[in-house]
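Side project, low priority. Logging it here so it doesn't get lost.
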Amino acid sequence: MERVRKSCGFPNGVEVDAEGSKGGLCMAWKENTPISVRSYSRRLIDAFVNDQVLGHKWRLTGFYGSPYAREKEESWQILKSLKEDEGQPWLVCGDFNEILYGFEKKGGLPREEQRMEYFRSVLQHCQLFDVGYTGRWFTWERGNLPETNIQERLDRGVANTSWLSMFPNANIKHLVHSTSDHCPLLITTNPEKYIQRSHAFKFEAWWVLEESFAAEVKNLWASTPGNLLQKLNYLQQGLRRWALETGKANNRTKKALTEKLTD
């Protein structure tokens, strides 16, 4: 791992060896990047990043959740133990080996609701929120045939409100995987340096929970002429408008119900 890290131009780093074909962690950084590693184990690498542009320090944790059901409890207890001062900006990213909701899996046996609920409760305990993503929705895939293919969103970035306020335009992109069955995550804290923000499309998990979502997608897709790229571009624009209108309607409903409760 060290040889690979240095060959990629990262002279500094820390590695945790894999256990057979499972696990293995590496955090690497360039020579002039001020990073201080706090601790590491087979489940995580925890570090502080001294952001010289913003003049602030924030916490970065690379996390690997166990793929085995019998070790899930250990993984979540370790993550919960990492919670510290809520005022410290904190980003946790990596392979959690778990999904938050049933719609984050396609193919194979459905995930037990209890397992997803436990994962959600751990993130709630740590006050960590899904950063979201751009690109295709899944990060792990197995099976080449339609009847055996399974896709899941096992990898993600989650952050507390301090980090999200520090980097309000942060973006996580699911890149295309090659040799691994997991796709890489590209985390950009300042996407304006690379892309126009108005063109960035971020899928929100709550959309799928709205009753009108599926019908809206079908309607947008069916009513759009042109090739695949044109239809996808129109779909993105349409979903942005739909999300804005739906969010406003939900806020009005929430406000009305709150007023009734206070009467």
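Brief comment: Residues 194-198 have pLDDT under 50 and may be disordered.
Revisit when time allows.
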